[in-house]
Write a structure and sequence with these properties.
By secondary structure, the protein is of the alpha/beta class. A hairpin with a 5-residue loop joins strand 14 and strand 15 (675-684). Residues 180-384 form the NACHT domain.
Length: 738
């Protein structure tokens, strides 16, 4: 920790001596001559006799180094200056807390420019934490649930599995026993490190654990250099204080008031299996870092101290044999309320926050994975940059595929050291496991499954797979899963687009892709829909370039031509698709974000019937994309009884220029906040209309005909309120005839 130019231990020693009257100062020097000094080396009488207070501090530091403060406190107590002894101890604790507060007060985003930072409290949102293991069936339900249902299941877990918060991690359980060790686990990107930072800042600011811990020390496993010379726990404390004269002896005198946070245990590269004299019980003994940590975890060193360990679930098994009666806690991520709060804190602008929230809430797969704070950060960061120049979200995260690609890239970038040591074949093996699971409708994998795909030892396994231990009879067994089924579907799709080692294997994989698309069309195989959508998204030229540049993985040139051919076959089917089946096909075209796909097929869909479909804003954007890039300009669209509102129509706007007939049945909120239907609206327009507008529907009109000069709108039925509805094109003047 950087001292930030604050007071050093020598300053506190001098302040303590200056608080003494001359008589007490002389008593101090007399007692120092005969005190049992550390190492048996007393300061010579001649050097102390006429020493000033400043000179005494220099002598104390010269002879006793980091033990000078503890020795001074002991002498103060011996000569009856208990207040001075307590003040010196408290002053240093206060100084350390100020340095901790300075270090953790601000945080930097992963993409921050030089000099950019954000107050931690302005970004931190309380996460959902539980204290009980969930049974196998519950975990399965959580993995496959999407959208709102997934969020509901997470929030149900908070009551069913004993939710807690960072203030209560060390509180006694129902039997009255308080844990000395807490293991806080969660997958990558879920907010473990941010939680640790909040705990450190909360303690330093006097908001957390004030009566529980005198000192907290955060040991980041990522920053430990295991190749260094022998070290001791005392050395680690000095490093934490960034003060070589820190009162280590005084700090260690009350181990029951110390909390050691081991952050990122999964990033520790060494084994904790030690034998013989590799352990130590003396905080001053110099052993390997491995020996210090192992002794601390096993409570052989400072057994009365407290530990908080953060780790990914995959590494938790390594802790099982080391820890003595630990408390389990798991971070599940954001609740729906927490997610909304995060977006509003991030943007500090309600309009922008609502725009970003609407983006994720209208995309089921993206909404599902937004319980992960890192996903929310990626979405907010990209949208903020785009909104600085545009009023709407552009194309950086305009598809579900791009959100998942960005998240995977950020995880790999965060673990770049592990990723660089992994072969590209490991990514293919991970994708192969995902694909086998999707085709077999399997979301929980045994150790044997990992062996079959050669993933027993893999950095990517620890990064993208979530390892859980479940009870089986009187024993235990480990099962693995992706962070959510959506991630499994994403990596399964990647298997199809990764370049294979030989032409024969490539030909086989194209046959496998053909089988996947055919199976997806069959009733009862809806579980393949998102995987197919991801395949279309991953074949996009922009996405392929991004993957090759960031992950250095080669993608197949055969996939895109094959998908184009398949899209044309679907477009020429008789009878043509309609309703949900047609919309699903349009989503695949949209996911590519390549005009060529829509341009090749949309002229086959002159009449588009989506009536009675509950369309989301994303569905409207999908339809607009497909219409916008069509070869023809005389589409007829039936959207009656789709419960469309003004923001649906805004999303649909770019595609309407290629329509001549639009059948609508709009819904708005009445004054009593109930959804009520507007009359059915039929618009017959002309080609190349210039924009997208507001249309005022007049109250009490039984029917009216609105002439635009470009077409007409027939309004049937009565309306009892005046509504402003965005439907046609901007800057049009309407002539209303009853």
């Amino acid at each position: 920790m950087e001292s930030g130019g604050g007071a050093t231990m020598q300053d506190f020693l001098l302040d303590a001596l200056e608080d003494l009257g001359q008589e007490d100062f002389e008593k101090f020097k007399f007692k120092l001559r005969t005190a049992a000094a550390p190492g048996g080396k007393n300061i010579p009488l001649g050097r102390m006799e006429k020493a000033t207070r400043e000179k005494m501090v220099e002598l104390l530091v010269e002879f006793y180094e980091e033990e000078a403060a503890a020795l001074m406190i002991t002498i103060f107590e011996d000569i009856g200056l208990k207040y001075n002894a307590s003040k010196l101890s408290k002053d240093y604790k206060k100084k350390y807390a100020e340095n901790v507060k300075e270090e953790y007060l601000l945080t930097e985003d992963r993409n921050s420019l030089f000099g950019e930072s954000t107050p931690l409290n302005a970004r931190y949102i309380e996460l959902l934490i539980i204290k009980k293991h969930r049974p196998l069936k519950q975990r399965e339900h959580e993995l496959v649930a999407t959208g709102r249902l997934h969020m509901d299941i997470l929030e149900t877990n908070s009551s069913d599995y004993s939710s807690t918060d960072i203030q209560s991690l060390f509180e006694p359980d129902d039997s009255g026993i308080a844990p000395r060790t807490v293991v806080l686990q969660g997958p990558a990107g879920i907010g473990k490190t941010m939680t640790v930072q909040k705990i450190m800042l909360g303690w330093a600011a006097g908001e957390l654990y004030q009566d529980v811990f005198d000192y907290m020390f955060c040991i980041r496993c990522r920053e430990l250099s295991l190749a260094e010379d022998a070290s001791s726990l005392a050395d680690l404390i000095v490093d934490q204080c960034q003060d070589m004269y820190a009162p280590v002896k005084g700090i260690l005198a009350h181990p029951e008031k110390l909390l050691f946070i081991i952050d990122g245990f999964d990033e520790l590269c060494c084994s904790l299996e030690l034998i013989g004299d590799s352990f130590c019980d003396d905080p001053y003994s110099k052993v390997s870092i491995q020996g210090v940590l192992s002794s601390l975890l096993r409570k052989k060193l400072l057994p009365k101290s407290y530990l908080l360990i953060t780790t990914r679930p995959g590494a938790a098994e390594r802790l099982h044999g080391c820890l003595k009666f630990p408390r389990f806690a798991e971070i599940l991520g954001f609740t729906e309320k927490g997610r909304r709060e995060y977006f509003f804190k991030f943007f500090k602008d309600d309009q922008k926050a609502n725009l970003a929230l609407r983006f994720i809430e209208n995309t089921s797969a993206v909404s599902t994975i937004c319980f992960i704070p890192m996903v929310c950060w990626i979405i907010c960061s990209v949208i903020r940059v785009e909104l600085e120049t545009e009023d709407e979200i552009a194309d950086t995260l305009d598809t579900t595929t791009k959100v998942f690609v960005q998240f995977s890239h950020n995880l790999l970038k965060h673990d770049s050291a592990k990723w660089k040591n992994s072969s590209l074949n490991e990514l293919g093996r991970l994708c192969s496991l995902a694909r086998a699971g999707i085709l077999g409708q399997k979301i929980l994998f045994e150790e044997q499954d990992l062996k079959e795909h050669h993933l027993e030892v893999s950095a990517l396994k620890d990064l993208f797979l979530d390892r859980r231990t479940f009870q089986r009879g009187v024993g235990r067994h480990n099962l693995y899963s992706f962070l959510h089924l959506c991630f499994q579907e994403f990596f399964a799709a990647m298997w199809y687009i990764l370049q294979k080692d030989s032409m024969e294997v490539s030909d086989n994989s194209m046959g496998d892709l053909k089988t996947l698309l055919a199976e997806c069309e069959k009733p009862g195989n809806e579980h393949l829909t998102l995987t197919v959508c991801f395949v279309f998204g991953l074949c996009s030229e922009k996405v392929r370039i991004f993957l090759e540049q960031t992950l250095q993985c080669k993608t197949s040139d055969l996939v895109k031509p094959f998908l184009l051919q398949r899209a044309e076959e679907v477009a020429t089917e008789e009878p043509p698709r309609k309703g949900h089946c047609l919309l699903k096909f349009f989503h695949c075209l949209f996911e590519t974000q390549e005009a060529e796909f829509a341009n090749r097929v949309m002229h086959h869909f002159q009449n588009i019937n989506l009536s009675d479909q509950m369309l989301s804003v994303l569905d409207c954007r999908v339809l607009a994309f497909c219409l916008q890039h069509s070869k023809i300009e005389d589409h007829s669209i039936d959207l009656t009884f789709c419960r469309l509102k003004s923001y649906h129509m805004r999303a649909l706007a770019p595609g309407i220029k290629n329509c001549t007939t639009l059948n609508l049945h709009l819904w708005l909120k009445s004054s009593c906040s109930l959804l009520v239907p507007l009359p059915r609206i039929v618009w017959t327009g002309r080609r190349k209309a210039p924009g997208f507008p507001g249309l005022k529907i007049l109250s009490h009109a039984r029917s009216c005909e609105m002439h635009t000069g470009l077409g007409k709108i027939n309004v049937y039925g009565g309306v009892t309120n005046v509504f402003l509805v965005t439907i046609l094109f901007l800057n049009r003047k309407f002539e209303i005839r009853k």
